[in-house]
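Deliverable D2.4 — example input (structure tokens):
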């Protein structure tokens, strides 16, 4: 938000930061610098700042000069869900998120070319509307891969449709280059899905080692090797699934998250009123 507009507001400002825009993938140097300046100035005017992960809190303190005393960590809530059943015929991998460069879908398509088992199906559930150019690049990459019949791009789906996709999946995969929390990872954990993901930002914290094989962002070769391992090794896959299910039961629920944010807002207004 433009700092000059925020300066006109009479009520105290509570900022909710999931992912600083200056850290978005695909920005040029001028755009990144402009967003850094704008976001620093906006956050400086906030009376309190709520973030969705410890990593984002550390990032705002280090790179955006937000004082630690202004920060509250409120991890997003995750609703309880039934455990995924999967089918295994074919081995179904699910990835969820809008089709934008930061999600690393092009690298995922590259990784799939290295799989030793040909019997698989990838479902990409995410809106192509946020970045039409990236969506076109992804469609072209799918065609060029020669695996068009094994890769489904669903576009935007309803909550019910998404729940069904999670239930039928055998594996959750996330190739993101950066995440401020990784809500889709939490949703996969809640369903006991084994995970292969990148250690991208806060995603490394959201998905514990007991539930996920993690690789460095942008490393398609390592991502393919991890996928291959989980597909071939049923015992390893079962262990990851059990780890995911156990972690999913410990995730914060929305009432707890909402309570944290509500307390920040109440405290801020009390301070302003006094």
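Example output (designed residues):
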């Amino acid at each position: 938000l433009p700092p000059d507009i925020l300066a006109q507001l009479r009520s105290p400002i509570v900022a909710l930061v999931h992912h600083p825009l200056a850290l978005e993938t695909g920005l040029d140097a001028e755009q990144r610098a402009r967003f850094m300046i704008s976001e620093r100035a906006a956050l400086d005017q906030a009376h309190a700042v709520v973030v969705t992960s410890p990593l984002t809190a550390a990032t705002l303190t280090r790179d955006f000069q937000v004082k630690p005393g202004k920060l509250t960590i409120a991890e997003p809530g995750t609703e309880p869900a039934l455990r995924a059943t999967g089918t295994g015929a074919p081995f179904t991998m699910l990835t969820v998120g809008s089709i934008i460069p930061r999600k690393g879908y092009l690298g995922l398509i590259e990784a799939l070319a290295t799989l030793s088992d040909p019997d698989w199906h990838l479902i990409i559930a995410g809106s192509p509307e946020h970045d039409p150019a990236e969506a076109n690049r992804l469609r072209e990459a799918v065609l060029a891969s020669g695996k068009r019949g094994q890769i489904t791009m669903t576009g935007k789906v309803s909550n019910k449709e998404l729940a069904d996709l999670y239930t039928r999946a055998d594996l959750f995969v996330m190739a993101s280059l950066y995440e401020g929390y990784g809500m889709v990872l939490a949703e996969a954990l809640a369903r006991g899905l084994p995970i292969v993901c990148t250690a991208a930002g806060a995603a490394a914290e959201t998905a514990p080692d007991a539930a996920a094989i993690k690789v460095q962002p942008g490393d398609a070769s390592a991502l393919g090797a991890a996928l291959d391992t989980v597909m071939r090794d049923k015992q390893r896959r079962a262990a990851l699934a059990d780890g995911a299910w156990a972690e999913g039961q410990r995730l914060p629920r929305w009432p707890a998250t909402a309570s944290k944010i509500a307390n920040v807002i109440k405290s801020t207004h009390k301070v302003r009123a006094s």
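DSSP finds eleven helices and nine strands in the chain.
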